[in-house]
Amino acid sequence: MGMVGKLRELYVQIGQQLSRFLEPLALFFLRFMVAKVFLDSGLGKWDGFLKFNVDKYDLFMYEFFCPDPVRPGALQLCNPETLEYVEGSFVVKMIELLAVFAGIAEVVLPVLLIIGLFSRFAALGLIGMTMFIQLAVFPTWDHWINPASWWAVSLLVIVARGPGTLSIDRLLGLDAKPALAK
């Protein structure tokens, strides 16, 4: 084997060792980093255990689905001329339900991701939330480039690679070690 072949082999061996030692840490910190964004948002929607902060209904109703000024391309659920809702309407009840659902999902899914339990499903759920936020609430390129694309890419890595060895999924045998390409 020539010098180039030996250097290539050394480079491959170093890469394998780095992957072996750094991948579990990288996947753990990636899970934690992206989960923290959603968890902070989710905890802000609650006043205590099972006590939803009703002020967050206004956030969903008027910031997300009836902003003034109107965000072009955003899902607008109020009357576009008056920027008001019909009190007690189906739309208002759905927005309130969506707010509570988001508050639950933004707490449960990140906790699952941090501890590494059902990690791929938790990541898929957060990808769904990210896409809804991007497409229905803030449909602009500047929101996609920063921060939504970072959330989506981080979560896609978790879906593709799994949670890593520092996870309950791996401990319980719910996530096999991914095969390395040869």
Description:
By secondary structure, the chain is mainly alpha-helical. It has one domain. The chain is built from six helices and two strands. A two-stranded antiparallel sheet has the order 1-2. Helix 4 (119-137) packs antiparallel against helix 5 (141-161). The protein starts with a helix and ends in an 11-residue tail after the last helix. The mean pLDDT is 89. Belongs to the DoxX family.
Give the structure's gist in a few sentences:
By secondary structure, this protein is mostly helical.
Helix-strand layout with pairing:
Blueprint: H1 3-43, E1 46-48, E2 51-52, H2 55-64, H3 90-115, H4 119-137, H5 141-161, H6 168-171
Antiparallel strand pairs: 1-2
Subcellular location: Cell membrane
Protein name: Oxidoreductase
GO cellular component, one term: plasma membrane
**How much beta, percentage-wise?**
under 5%
H/E element sequence: HEEHHHHH
Shape: elongated
| Major sheet summary line | 2 strands, antiparallel
Please list the strands of the largest sheet in the order they lie side by side.
Answer: 1-2
Give unreliable regions as ranges: none
Given helix and strand content, the structural type is: mainly alpha
Helical content, roughly? 55-70%
The number of distinct structural domains comes to: 1
Average pLDDT figure: 89
What is the terminal-to-terminal distance?
20 Å
- Return Rg in Å: 21 Å
Number of H/I helices: 6
- Number of extended strands: 2
Family: Belongs to the DoxX family.
Keywords: Cell membrane, Membrane, Transmembrane, Transmembrane helix
Protein name: Oxidoreductase
Membrane topology: Multi-pass membrane protein
